[in-house]
User: What shape does this take?
Amino acid sequence: MERRLPTLPVSFLMPVCDEIDIIEEVVREWHDQVIRYFPTGTELVFDDCSTDGTREKLAELRKELPYIRVIESSRDGFFNSAMRLYRGARNPLVFFTDSDGQYIPEEIWKLTPLLESCDLVHGSKTRRQDPYYRVAASNAFNAIVRSLFETRHDDVNSAFRFVKRPLLEAILPRIRHLTTLLNAELLLRAERENFRVESIPVGHRKRKYGRSRGLPLRRFLAECGRAYKGLKALKREYEP
Assistant: This one.
C-alpha cells in the first residue's frame, strides 16, 4: 500500500484499560506499520486507567520508544478519557483510535491522501468483528443517525480518524449530548458546521484477547434510549 505522509507531526491517541495481554503487540504493530514513518515530534499518547500491569508495560516500552506518553487516570468513563486525550494532544494533527488491536494500523494509509483537503478523515468499519448485540446496536444507531441528520457517512462513532486542531478547538468544548458516543457527536457537528469531512472504509478484526470494553449487554437498552435522546437534542441545536 502506498504511504502518503502528512507534513505535520501527529498525536496518536488511545484510551487504554487493562490490556496487558495485547498492549505490547499493539504498540509494536503501530510503530512498525505507521508511526516510524511520521515526522519528528509525532507522539503516541495513552489515557490509562489500568490496574493489570498495562501501565508498567507502557513505561517499559517508553524506554525504547520515547515518543510514548501516558496520562494516568482513574476509571471515570470513555467520555472523560477521550476528552483528556483530545485536550492533551500537542500536535496540529490528531489521530484517535482504540488500543485493543481490532483496528488494523496499515489501513491508515487509506486516509492520509485526504488530509490536504479535509478537516476530519473518518475510517468507517467494514464487516465489524464484534459480538452480535454490539453490531446490531451500531446498525440501529447509524440508521437513526441517517434518518435524523441525512448524513452520507456510515459508522459515525468509529474510533479510527484524523482530526485537525482547528476543528477540535471549535467543536470539542460543545460536546455534551452523546457522552458515550463522543466521536459520533464530533463528526455530526463537524458536518453540520461545514467542516470538510470524508469517510473511507477500513478493515476490522476480532478481538484477540479478553472482552470488549464497550457497552455491556446489561446496559444496552438504557444506553440506546440515552443515545436517541442525545441525537434528538443535537438535532434541535441545528434546526432553524
